[in-house]
Amino acid sequence: MPVEPAKKVEVTGNRIQQIVSESYNKYGNLLSHLSDKLGIELAASVAVLSVESGGVGIDRGRALIRFENHLFYKYWGKFNEAKFRQHFQFAASKNWLGHKFRKDPDGEWIDFHGDQDKEYEALNFARSLDDEKALLSISMGLPQILGSNSKLIGYDSVQEMFENFNKDIRYHIFALFDFFSPRMIKYLSGKEFVNFAKYYNGQGQARRYGKFIQDYYEAFPKNLG
Question: Residue 110 phi/psi, 5° resolution?
Answer without folding.
Answer: -125, 145
